[in-house]
Design goal:
Elements: H1 12-30, H2 61-64, E1 69-72, E2 98-107, E3 113-122, H3 126-139, E4 145-146, E5 150-157, E6 167-177, E7 183-193, E8 196-204, H4 207-231
Antiparallel strand pairs: 1-2, 2-3, 3-8, 4-5, 5-6, 6-7, 7-8
Amino acid sequence: MLTKRHYGRATIYGVLLTLVIIVGAACSKAGGSSGEAGSVRDVQTNGPAARSPLDAVVLKPADVGPAAISRTIQGGQEVAGQVTLDLCNAAYASEALRTARLQVAFLDGAGHVGASNEIVSYRPGGTRRAYRELTAAAGRCPGSYRERGATVSHIRFGPHVRRLGARQLVVSVLFSETSGPGHAWSAAVYQFRENLFSGVYAFGGTRRAALRLALRLGAMSAARLRVATARS
């Protein structure tokens, strides 16, 4: 069962489930959606993060906005016990091919979580397998399904964007708390380049807002991936 303690879960669904609980509480108090996706107190960290080779690739607060700050999420530098891919409730054998991982959350000046970026390195051939599994899962994705206390619906794939890497997948969904009024839109940009993966996960009060943020940050992440792989 996913709890706030497990904020380190990597996919848009796992991250958003934590946020939906918070949004749901705000909705029940205010009588409508607050459009806010959580606060800094809900992002549990492990204290000062150790330097990682993936630091050069992960997005920075300045990429998100002038008031943004970043926090390494709990478990954000671990591979064991942490999930990267589980889109559409599919199984991903490529998870065993990951070698390192870094995930950070970005908060605005008011402490609300608006986006997250996950960078993962794979063994040679791992990203090709992961991308095949991801696109196959997308092709057979149900119209809606349950995901740990919430319902995932209004699933939409695309668009295909030139500014992103060639191996890309864009998805947006509505995530609704099963036992309450909490709901939020989320969009993700998955990209694979050589042995690196970047997942950008963005949240918003509307699909358009979440998707716009995810695509903007995804383009920045694509540029970082190009630089990183050119150096390797």
